Amino acid sequence: RSPVFSHLNATVLGLATVRSFGAECLLGAEFDRHQDLHSAAWYLFISCSRAFGYFLDSISLTGIFQWGMRQSAEMENQMTSVERVIEYTKLPNEPALRSSPDKKPPANWPPEGFIHFDDLSLKYTPDGNYVLHKLQLEVLPQEKIGIVGRTGAGKSSIIQALFRLAYLEGTISIDGIDVSTIGLHDLREKISIIPQLLRALQNVELQSEDEGTERQLVCLARAIVHNDRILVLDEATANVDAQTDALIQTAIRVHFEHLERLSIGNILQILVLDAGRLMEYDHPHILLQNKKGYFRRMVGETGTTMARGLHKLAAQNCSK
Ligand SMILES: Nc1ncnc2c1ncn2[C@@H]1O[C@H](COP(=O)(O)OP(=O)(O)OP(=O)(O)O)[C@@H](O)[C@H]1O
Ligand SMILES: [Mg+2]
Protein backbone atom coordinates (compact mmCIF):
# COMPACT_ATOMS: atom_id res chain seq x y z
CA ARG A 1 0.00 0.00 0.00
CA SER A 2 2.75 2.48 0.87
CA PRO A 3 4.10 2.93 -2.70
CA VAL A 4 0.56 3.85 -3.80
CA PHE A 5 0.18 6.41 -1.02
CA SER A 6 3.60 7.97 -1.44
CA HIS A 7 3.16 8.19 -5.22
CA LEU A 8 -0.22 9.88 -4.84
CA ASN A 9 1.15 12.25 -2.21
CA ALA A 10 4.16 13.24 -4.33
CA THR A 11 1.91 13.77 -7.35
CA VAL A 12 -0.49 16.03 -5.50
CA LEU A 13 2.39 18.07 -4.02
CA GLY A 14 4.04 18.49 -7.40
CA LEU A 15 0.84 19.03 -9.38
CA ALA A 16 2.01 22.33 -10.87
CA THR A 17 5.25 20.74 -12.09
CA VAL A 18 3.43 17.71 -13.48
CA ARG A 19 1.03 19.93 -15.42
CA SER A 20 3.67 22.30 -16.72
CA PHE A 21 5.67 19.36 -18.13
CA GLY A 22 2.50 17.70 -19.48
CA ALA A 23 3.44 14.53 -17.60
CA GLU A 24 -0.09 13.54 -16.55
CA CYS A 25 -0.12 10.33 -18.64
CA LEU A 26 3.31 9.27 -17.37
CA LEU A 27 2.24 9.75 -13.76
CA GLY A 28 -1.09 8.02 -14.47
CA ALA A 29 0.72 4.96 -15.85
CA GLU A 30 3.09 4.89 -12.86
CA PHE A 31 0.14 5.05 -10.50
CA ASP A 32 -1.59 2.18 -12.31
CA ARG A 33 1.56 0.09 -12.00
CA HIS A 34 1.70 0.62 -8.23
CA GLN A 35 -2.03 -0.02 -7.96
CA ASP A 36 -1.78 -3.26 -9.97
CA LEU A 37 1.00 -4.54 -7.76
CA HIS A 38 -1.02 -3.72 -4.66
CA SER A 39 -4.18 -5.36 -6.05
CA ALA A 40 -2.24 -8.48 -7.01
CA ALA A 41 -0.78 -8.86 -3.52
CA TRP A 42 -4.11 -8.14 -1.83
CA TYR A 43 -5.95 -10.58 -4.10
CA LEU A 44 -3.40 -13.29 -3.34
CA PHE A 45 -3.77 -12.66 0.38
CA ILE A 46 -7.57 -12.92 0.29
CA SER A 47 -7.56 -16.01 -1.95
CA CYS A 48 -5.04 -17.81 0.22
CA SER A 49 -6.89 -17.09 3.44
CA ARG A 50 -10.22 -18.22 1.88
CA ALA A 51 -8.63 -21.35 0.45
CA PHE A 52 -7.08 -22.11 3.81
CA GLY A 53 -10.51 -21.59 5.43
CA TYR A 54 -12.10 -24.08 3.01
CA PHE A 55 -9.33 -26.55 3.70
CA LEU A 56 -9.90 -26.32 7.45
CA ASP A 57 -13.67 -26.62 6.91
CA SER A 58 -13.13 -29.75 4.82
CA ILE A 59 -11.18 -31.44 7.61
CA SER A 60 -13.86 -30.27 10.08
CA LEU A 61 -11.57 -27.98 12.08
CA THR A 62 -13.77 -24.91 12.30
CA GLY A 63 -14.57 -22.05 14.65
CA ILE A 64 -12.00 -21.19 17.23
CA PHE A 65 -9.22 -23.16 15.54
CA GLN A 66 -9.62 -21.28 12.26
CA TRP A 67 -9.68 -18.00 14.12
CA GLY A 68 -6.50 -19.01 15.97
CA MET A 69 -4.68 -19.75 12.72
CA ARG A 70 -5.71 -16.40 11.24
CA GLN A 71 -4.55 -14.55 14.31
CA SER A 72 -1.19 -16.26 14.32
CA ALA A 73 -0.66 -15.30 10.66
CA GLU A 74 -1.71 -11.73 11.47
CA MET A 75 0.72 -11.63 14.37
CA GLU A 76 3.54 -12.79 12.11
CA ASN A 77 2.70 -9.86 9.79
CA GLN A 78 2.58 -7.28 12.55
CA MET A 79 5.92 -8.46 13.89
CA THR A 80 7.51 -6.99 10.76
CA SER A 81 6.75 -3.56 12.22
CA VAL A 82 8.40 -4.52 15.48
CA GLU A 83 11.44 -5.64 13.51
CA ARG A 84 11.63 -2.25 11.82
CA VAL A 85 11.48 -0.38 15.11
CA ILE A 86 14.18 -2.60 16.58
CA GLU A 87 16.37 -1.79 13.59
CA TYR A 88 16.28 1.90 14.58
CA THR A 89 17.50 1.12 18.09
CA LYS A 90 20.64 -0.38 16.56
CA LEU A 91 21.66 2.74 14.58
CA PRO A 92 24.96 4.27 15.71
CA ASN A 93 24.45 7.06 18.24
CA GLU A 94 25.09 10.75 17.58
CA PRO A 95 28.11 12.15 19.42
CA ALA A 96 27.47 13.39 22.96
CA LEU A 97 24.90 16.18 23.22
CA ARG A 98 26.58 17.82 26.22
CA SER A 99 30.30 18.39 26.67
CA SER A 100 32.21 16.47 29.30
CA PRO A 101 32.83 18.75 32.34
CA ASP A 102 36.52 19.33 31.53
CA LYS A 103 35.72 20.29 27.90
CA LYS A 104 32.70 22.49 28.58
CA PRO A 105 33.04 25.88 26.85
CA PRO A 106 32.59 29.00 29.03
CA ALA A 107 29.03 30.35 29.26
CA ASN A 108 29.90 33.43 27.20
CA TRP A 109 31.55 31.38 24.45
CA PRO A 110 32.06 32.47 21.73
CA PRO A 111 33.01 35.96 22.99
CA GLU A 112 34.19 37.18 19.57
CA GLY A 113 32.98 34.83 16.86
CA PHE A 114 36.27 34.09 15.10
CA ILE A 115 35.73 31.04 12.89
CA HIS A 116 38.59 29.03 11.50
CA PHE A 117 38.05 26.23 8.98
CA ASP A 118 41.17 24.10 8.76
CA ASP A 119 41.36 21.59 5.90
CA LEU A 120 37.67 20.94 6.26
CA SER A 121 36.13 18.18 4.18
CA LEU A 122 32.55 17.02 4.43
CA LYS A 123 30.51 14.08 3.25
CA TYR A 124 26.92 13.11 3.98
CA THR A 125 27.46 9.36 4.29
CA PRO A 126 30.47 7.49 5.67
CA ASP A 127 31.24 5.86 2.32
CA GLY A 128 29.91 8.66 0.08
CA ASN A 129 31.78 11.25 -1.97
CA TYR A 130 33.20 14.39 -0.43
CA VAL A 131 30.91 17.38 -0.92
CA LEU A 132 33.39 19.93 0.48
CA HIS A 133 37.11 19.52 -0.23
CA LYS A 134 39.76 20.70 2.23
CA LEU A 135 38.39 24.19 2.83
CA GLN A 136 40.86 26.52 4.42
CA LEU A 137 39.49 29.87 5.55
CA GLU A 138 39.00 32.30 8.41
CA VAL A 139 36.05 34.50 9.26
CA LEU A 140 37.02 37.41 11.46
CA PRO A 141 34.82 38.66 14.32
CA GLN A 142 32.02 40.97 13.12
CA GLU A 143 32.88 40.19 9.53
CA LYS A 144 30.09 39.57 7.08
CA ILE A 145 30.73 37.07 4.39
CA GLY A 146 28.56 36.02 1.49
CA ILE A 147 28.89 32.57 -0.02
CA VAL A 148 28.23 32.26 -3.74
CA GLY A 149 28.28 29.33 -6.10
CA ARG A 150 26.05 27.43 -8.46
CA THR A 151 23.38 25.14 -7.15
CA GLY A 152 24.99 22.11 -5.52
CA ALA A 153 28.32 23.92 -5.02
CA GLY A 154 28.16 23.32 -1.27
CA LYS A 155 26.90 26.62 0.18
CA SER A 156 24.37 25.00 2.51
CA SER A 157 26.87 22.24 3.27
CA ILE A 158 29.24 24.78 4.87
CA ILE A 159 26.40 25.56 7.25
CA GLN A 160 25.76 21.86 7.86
CA ALA A 161 29.45 21.61 8.77
CA LEU A 162 29.18 24.51 11.20
CA PHE A 163 26.38 22.70 13.01
CA ARG A 164 28.14 19.32 12.73
CA LEU A 165 25.24 17.77 10.86
CA ALA A 166 27.36 15.57 8.57
CA TYR A 167 30.64 13.64 8.54
CA LEU A 168 33.56 16.04 8.90
CA GLU A 169 37.29 15.76 8.47
CA GLY A 170 39.65 18.54 9.43
CA THR A 171 38.66 21.05 12.09
CA ILE A 172 36.40 24.00 12.64
CA SER A 173 37.30 26.14 15.59
CA ILE A 174 35.31 29.03 16.98
CA ASP A 175 37.28 31.42 19.19
CA GLY A 176 39.97 28.80 19.62
CA ILE A 177 37.70 25.92 20.64
CA ASP A 178 37.63 22.94 18.30
CA VAL A 179 33.91 22.35 17.86
CA SER A 180 34.34 18.58 17.56
CA THR A 181 35.46 18.43 21.21
CA ILE A 182 32.26 19.90 22.68
CA GLY A 183 28.70 18.59 22.98
CA LEU A 184 26.33 19.07 20.04
CA HIS A 185 23.80 21.07 22.06
CA ASP A 186 26.52 23.28 23.52
CA LEU A 187 27.57 24.10 19.95
CA ARG A 188 24.20 24.46 18.26
CA GLU A 189 22.72 26.67 20.96
CA LYS A 190 25.34 29.29 20.20
CA ILE A 191 24.69 29.73 16.50
CA SER A 192 21.52 31.27 15.08
CA ILE A 193 20.28 30.15 11.73
CA ILE A 194 17.55 31.30 9.40
CA PRO A 195 17.38 28.39 7.00
CA GLN A 196 16.76 27.97 3.31
CA LEU A 197 13.15 27.02 2.73
CA LEU A 198 12.21 23.72 1.24
CA ARG A 199 12.08 24.23 -2.50
CA ALA A 200 8.88 22.22 -2.64
CA LEU A 201 7.09 24.98 -0.80
CA GLN A 202 7.48 27.24 -3.80
CA ASN A 203 5.13 25.06 -5.78
CA VAL A 204 2.54 24.32 -3.19
CA GLU A 205 -0.43 26.46 -2.41
CA LEU A 206 -0.24 29.72 -0.50
CA GLN A 207 -0.96 28.18 2.88
CA SER A 208 2.29 26.22 2.96
CA GLU A 209 4.21 29.25 1.80
CA ASP A 210 2.81 31.19 4.72
CA GLU A 211 3.93 28.41 7.04
CA GLY A 212 7.41 28.70 5.56
CA THR A 213 7.48 32.43 6.12
CA GLU A 214 6.25 31.90 9.64
CA ARG A 215 9.05 29.46 10.34
CA GLN A 216 11.64 31.99 9.18
CA LEU A 217 10.12 34.69 11.35
CA VAL A 218 10.22 32.34 14.35
CA CYS A 219 13.90 31.61 13.65
CA LEU A 220 14.57 35.32 13.38
CA ALA A 221 12.78 36.04 16.65
CA ARG A 222 14.78 33.31 18.35
CA ALA A 223 18.00 34.76 16.96
CA ILE A 224 17.09 38.21 18.28
CA VAL A 225 16.30 36.86 21.74
CA HIS A 226 19.48 34.77 21.91
CA ASN A 227 21.66 37.53 20.55
CA ASP A 228 24.25 35.03 19.34
CA ARG A 229 27.66 36.05 17.96
CA ILE A 230 27.18 34.04 14.82
CA LEU A 231 24.17 34.39 12.57
CA VAL A 232 23.76 32.27 9.47
CA LEU A 233 21.27 33.04 6.72
CA ASP A 234 20.69 30.52 3.97
CA GLU A 235 18.68 32.29 1.30
CA ALA A 236 16.60 33.58 4.18
CA THR A 237 14.46 35.80 2.01
CA ALA A 238 14.30 33.56 -1.03
CA ASN A 239 10.66 32.55 -1.03
CA VAL A 240 8.92 35.23 1.01
CA ASP A 241 6.81 38.14 -0.19
CA ALA A 242 8.32 41.59 -0.58
CA GLN A 243 6.83 42.88 2.66
CA THR A 244 8.26 40.04 4.78
CA ASP A 245 11.56 40.36 2.94
CA ALA A 246 11.77 44.02 4.00
CA LEU A 247 10.76 43.07 7.55
CA ILE A 248 13.47 40.43 7.83
CA GLN A 249 16.16 42.69 6.33
CA THR A 250 15.29 45.58 8.67
CA ALA A 251 15.12 43.34 11.74
CA ILE A 252 18.55 41.92 10.91
CA ARG A 253 20.05 45.36 10.36
CA VAL A 254 18.63 46.74 13.60
CA HIS A 255 19.30 43.78 15.87
CA PHE A 256 22.56 42.34 14.57
CA GLU A 257 24.65 45.39 13.82
CA HIS A 258 27.38 44.09 16.13
CA LEU A 259 27.38 40.60 14.71
CA GLU A 260 29.28 38.84 12.05
CA ARG A 261 27.03 37.67 9.28
CA LEU A 262 27.08 35.28 6.43
CA SER A 263 24.58 37.48 4.77
CA ILE A 264 23.09 39.46 1.95
CA GLY A 265 23.61 43.13 1.18
CA ASN A 266 26.49 45.26 2.43
CA ILE A 267 28.80 42.26 2.26
CA LEU A 268 32.48 42.62 3.09
CA GLN A 269 33.85 39.33 1.82
CA ILE A 270 32.73 36.95 -0.85
CA LEU A 271 33.51 33.29 -0.74
CA VAL A 272 33.17 31.59 -4.11
CA LEU A 273 32.57 27.85 -4.10
CA ASP A 274 32.57 25.47 -7.03
CA ALA A 275 31.86 21.76 -6.59
CA GLY A 276 32.87 21.94 -2.94
CA ARG A 277 36.17 23.72 -3.56
CA LEU A 278 37.08 27.22 -2.47
CA MET A 279 37.77 29.19 -5.65
CA GLU A 280 38.04 32.79 -4.44
CA TYR A 281 37.70 34.62 -1.15
CA ASP A 282 38.01 38.40 -1.03
CA HIS A 283 36.16 41.70 -1.19
CA PRO A 284 33.72 41.73 -4.14
CA HIS A 285 35.36 44.81 -5.66
CA ILE A 286 38.75 43.11 -5.68
CA LEU A 287 37.30 39.88 -7.08
CA LEU A 288 35.63 41.84 -9.86
CA GLN A 289 38.97 43.32 -10.96
CA ASN A 290 40.23 39.86 -11.87
CA LYS A 291 39.34 39.51 -15.55
CA LYS A 292 39.61 35.73 -15.45
CA GLY A 293 37.92 35.47 -12.05
CA TYR A 294 35.12 33.05 -11.31
CA PHE A 295 33.05 35.66 -9.48
CA ARG A 296 33.43 38.16 -12.30
CA ARG A 297 32.16 35.57 -14.75
CA MET A 298 29.14 34.78 -12.57
CA VAL A 299 28.31 38.47 -12.27
CA GLY A 300 28.71 38.82 -16.04
CA GLU A 301 26.16 36.05 -16.56
CA THR A 302 23.45 38.07 -14.82
CA GLY A 303 23.17 40.36 -17.89
CA THR A 304 24.80 43.67 -18.85
CA THR A 305 22.60 46.06 -16.87
CA MET A 306 22.60 43.95 -13.72
CA ALA A 307 26.36 43.35 -13.95
CA ARG A 308 27.06 47.06 -14.35
CA GLY A 309 24.91 47.79 -11.29
CA LEU A 310 26.71 45.14 -9.24
CA HIS A 311 30.16 46.44 -10.26
CA LYS A 312 29.15 49.95 -9.19
CA LEU A 313 27.74 48.69 -5.88
CA ALA A 314 30.94 46.75 -5.11
CA ALA A 315 33.11 49.78 -5.88
CA GLN A 316 30.95 52.01 -3.64
CA ASN A 317 31.09 49.53 -0.77
CA CYS A 318 34.85 49.19 -1.15
CA SER A 319 35.48 52.91 -0.76
CA LYS A 320 33.36 53.10 2.43
N1 LIG B 1 21.50 15.39 2.86
C1 LIG B 1 22.30 15.14 1.82
N2 LIG B 1 22.72 13.89 1.54
C2 LIG B 1 23.54 13.63 0.49
N3 LIG B 1 24.00 14.57 -0.35
C3 LIG B 1 23.61 15.84 -0.14
C4 LIG B 1 22.74 16.20 0.95
N4 LIG B 1 22.54 17.54 0.91
C5 LIG B 1 23.25 17.99 -0.14
N5 LIG B 1 23.89 16.99 -0.77
C6 LIG B 1 24.78 17.11 -1.96
O1 LIG B 1 25.84 17.98 -1.61
C7 LIG B 1 26.17 18.85 -2.68
C8 LIG B 1 26.14 20.29 -2.17
O2 LIG B 1 24.80 20.62 -1.82
P1 LIG B 1 24.38 21.96 -1.10
O3 LIG B 1 22.98 21.81 -0.65
O4 LIG B 1 25.40 22.31 -0.08
O5 LIG B 1 24.48 22.99 -2.31
P2 LIG B 1 24.07 24.53 -2.35
O6 LIG B 1 25.29 25.25 -2.86
O7 LIG B 1 23.52 24.97 -1.04
O8 LIG B 1 22.95 24.52 -3.48
P3 LIG B 1 21.63 25.46 -3.60
O9 LIG B 1 22.09 26.73 -4.24
O10 LIG B 1 20.76 24.67 -4.54
O11 LIG B 1 21.04 25.64 -2.25
C9 LIG B 1 25.19 18.54 -3.79
O12 LIG B 1 25.83 17.73 -4.72
C10 LIG B 1 24.06 17.80 -3.11
O13 LIG B 1 23.51 16.85 -3.98
MG1 LIG C 1 21.64 25.63 -0.43
From TrEMBL:
Domain ABC transporter, first and last residues per copy: 115-300
Domain of life: Eukaryota
GO cellular component, as recorded: membrane
Molecular function via GO: ATP binding; ATP hydrolysis activity; ATPase-coupled transmembrane transporter activity
A Pfam family hit: ABC_tran
Record keywords: ATP-binding, Membrane, Nucleotide-binding, Transmembrane, Transmembrane helix
Membrane topology field: Multi-pass membrane protein
Intracellular or extracellular location(s): Membrane
UniProt xrefs under InterPro entries: AAA+_ATPase, ABC1_TM_sf, ABC_transporter-like_ATP-bd, ABC_transporter_C-like, P-loop_NTPase
Family: Belongs to the ABC transporter superfamily. ABCC family. Conjugate transporter (TC 3.A.1.208) subfamily.
Protein name: Putative ATP-dependent bile acid permease
Species per Swiss-Prot/TrEMBL record: Operophtera brumata (Winter moth)
